[in-house]
Design brief:
The chain is of the alpha+beta class. It has 18 helices and 13 strands. About 35% of the residues are buried.
C-alpha cells in the first residue's frame, strides 16, 4: 500500500483515488473534495496518514487483512479477541471465535501444538472516526462553498505557442475591461471577529505554506529547465483552491501567512506572499470565484521572468549596475516567453505578467501604459508586489514596518501611481495597521493587530499583549475592537518584540 502523509493531501480538489484509514475504513471516495476541517478533524483522531493503491486486487487483500493480525501465543494479551475458531491437529475445537486467551488457555493451546493465533485488530478511534464520516457526509450535502473552483474552458489559451511579448505589446488594449462577476468570493468568507483558534488549525496553516513553498521551488526549477515543455499547472490550481479555502475559514490567519519567510529563497517567498495578498484583495473587490482563480495564475507567475537572474543580484548590497538594471527591466518579457511552456493558462495571464509593473500615471514599464490600458489584475498585483517587497528584508535594506509600507502605498495612490479602488480594497481587508503588525496604544500598552475592522481603517481589532513600553506581559492577553473604544487609539506602529519576531512562534503562541 502507498502511504500519503495527511499534510500532503490536496484541499479543494476532488480526489482521483480513494483514501483509507489503517483499519481499512474508507475516508475519502473518488471525487470527494477534502477541506481544512477534514484535516483538522482527522488529526484530532490521531490520523496522520492515508493509505491508497491503484491495484484493486492488492487493495482488496489489504482491506481484508486490516481487521486482523497474527500473534504468537506469548504476544497475545487477555484483551485480544480471536478472529476465528482454533482447532487441534486432530480437528478438535479448542476455543471459539471471539474467545480470549488467559494463562490457562495459553498453556492448554501450547500443549496441543498451537504456536500462534489470529486476533481481531482493535482501533480505539474507529467509533469517533465513523461519527466524523457521518457528519462530513451531512455537511457535504449542505455546503458548497468549499467546492473546487475551476477555470472556464472558454478563458483558457488553446495554443500556447501564440504567446509572445511582441503580441502582448500589440494587444495592450484587449481583454482588460473586466468587471467583478459570478459568485462573489467574499460572500462565502466568515467575517466574524477572530475567536479561539486550535493549535491544529494553526499548525495546518503553517504546514500548508511549507508544502507549497517546496512545490513552488520544484515548479520553478522545471520551468527554467532547457528541455521542459507542457509543464502541468495543477500546482497553481491546488495552491489557489487551498488558499481560498483558508480564506473562507479564517481570513485573518491567512493574512498573517504572508509574513512567513520559511527559507532563504526570495523569489519563492515573494511569489507565495503576493499570491496570498492578491486573492484577498480580489475577494475584497467583489470578484467571483473563477475570476479570483484566474488572477491567482497571474499572481503566481508574475515574477517568473526573474528566475533567470543570477543569485548575486538578489544578495547585492550596492547599487545595481546599468547592465543589471536593464536586465531586470526586461523580466516581464522573459516571463511571457517562459509561460509558453505551461499546458493550461488563462488568456489574461500573459497580459497581466507583461503589465504588472505598469502604473496608472504611465510611470511604469515596459510600455508606460496608463489607467484603462492596464489589465485590472495587473493593477492588483502591482499593489501586492510592492507591499510585500517593502515589508520583507532585502540585502540592501531592512524590512519596512507594515504601517509605513501601507502609508507609502496610500500616498502613491493619491498621486495617481496605483489604482485607488485596489488600494481601498487592500485597506478593507488589511487595515491601515496590517494584521500581524505591532502597535502602541494611547494607553501605552503594546498590542498586535489580529483583524481589520471595516468600520474604521485606523482602528483594527487588537490583542493587547504588554502592559507598557517595558514589555511587561499580561498573563491573559485581552482583545479590543478599537472602533468600539472612542478614547483608545493607535498611537504609533512599533517593531515586533524581539522574542516574537519569528512569525511561526507568534502564530502558535499569540494569534
Amino acid at each position: 500500500m502507498n502511504i500519503l502523509p495527511l499534510d500532503n493531501l490536496q484541499l479543494g480538489v476532488p480526489t482521483e483515488i480513494a483514501y483509507y484509514h489503517v483499519s481499512g475504513t474508507k475516508i475519502f471516495s473518488i471525487g470527494d473534495t477534502p477541506r481544512i476541517a477534514d484535516v483538522i478533524s482527522l488529526k484530532r483522531l490521531k490520523v496522520n496518514e492515508l493509505y491508497h493503491s491503484s491495484d484493486e486486487i492488492h487493495l482488496a487483500k489489504w482491506i481484508a487483512g486490516c481487521g486482523t493480525r497474527k500473534l504468537t501465543l506469548d504476544e497475545v494479551l487477555p484483551s485480544h479477541k480471536l478472529a476465528g475458531d482454533i482447532f487441534s491437529e486432530e480437528g478438535q475445537k479448542l476455543i471459539g471465535m471471539g474467545g480470549t486467551v488467559n494463562r490457562d488457555v495459553r498453556r492448554e493451546l501450547k500443549a496441543k501444538g498451537v504456536t500462534d493465533v489470529i486476533v481481531i485488530r482493535e482501533y480505539s478511534e474507529l467509533g469517533e472516526l465513523e461519527s466524523y464520516l457521518k457528519d462530513r457526509k451531512k455537511q457535504s450535502a449542505q455546503d458548497s462553498k468549499y467546492a473546487e473552483i475551476k477555470l472556464d474552458p472558454e478563458c483558457i489559451i488553446s495554443d500556447a505557442s501564440t504567446i509572445s511579448a511582441s503580441r502582448m505589446k500589440r494587444g495592450i488594449t484587449r481583454e482588460i475591461r473586466i468587471k467583478p462577476q459570478g459568485d462573489p468570493l467574499h460572500e462565502a468568507i466568515d467575517h466574524e471577529p477572530p475567536g479561539f483558534r486550535s493549535d491544529d488549525l494553526k499548525k495546518y496553516y503553517l504546514s500548508l505554506y511549507e508544502k507549497h513553498f517546496n512545490q513552488t521551488r520544484e515548479f520553478f526549477d522545471a520551468l527554467i529547465s532547457e528541455n521542459s515543455t507542457a509543464i502541468k499547472t495543477r500546482h497553481i490550481i491546488s495552491l489557489a483552491n487551498e488558499v481560498i479555502q483558508c480564506l473562507i475559514r479564517d481570513k485573518n490567519l491567512l493574512i498573517v501567512m504572508h509574513q512567513l519567510q520559511t527559507k532563504n529563497d526570495q523569489i519563492v517567498n515573494h511569489t507565495l506572499n503576493v499570491t496570498l495578498i492578491c486573492i484577498n484583495i480580489a475577494s475584497s473587490m467583489g470578484y467571483g470565484r473563477e475570476q479570483v482563480l484566474e488572477l491567482a495564475y497571474a499572481a503566481f507567475l508574475h515574477d517568473v521572468g526573474m528566475l533567470g537572474e543570477p543569485e548575486d543580484i538578489f544578495e547585492k548590497k550596492d547599487s545595481l549596475s546599468s547592465k543589471e538594471k536593464e536586465s531586470i527591466a526586461v523580466h516581464p518579457e522573459r516571463g511571457v516567453e517562459l509561460i509558453k511552456k505551461l499546458d493550461c493558462i488563462p488568456k489574461s495571464t500573459p497580459y497581466v505578467v507583461y503589465q504588472e509593473h505598469e502604473r496608472e500615471d504611465g510611470s511604469g514599464y515596459p510600455n508606460h501604459l496608463k489607467a484603462d490600458q492596464i489589465h485590472p489584475f495587473a493593477k492588483i498585483i502591482a499593489v501586492a508586489d510592492v507591499f510585500d517587497a517593502l515589508t520583507c528584508t532585502r540585502a540592501w535594506r531592512p524590512a519596512m514596518l507594515p504601517y509605513k509600507a501601507m502609508e507609502l502605498i496610500i500616498k502613491q495612490s493619491n498621486k495617481g501611481v496605483f489604482c485607488r479602488d485596489v488600494v481601498k480594497a487592500f485597506l478593507r481587508y488589511f487595515s491601515l495597521f496590517p494584521v500581524g503588525s505591532w502597535v502602541q496604544l494611547s494607553t501605552k500598552e503594546i498590542a498586535n493587530v489580529i483583524a481589520a475592522d471595516p468600520r474604521r481603517y485606523d482602528k483594527p481589532i487588537v490583542r493587547v499583549a504588554f502592559k507598557n513600553e517595558d514589555r511587561e506581559i499580561y498573563a491573559s492577553p485581552k482583545i479590543i475592537a478599537l472602533a468600539n473604544e472612542p478614547h483608545i487609539y493607535v498611537a504609533a506602529p512599533v517593531e515586533a518584540p524581539r522574542d516574537l519576531a519569528d512569525s511561526q512562534f507568534w502564530i502558535m503562541n499569540l494569534l
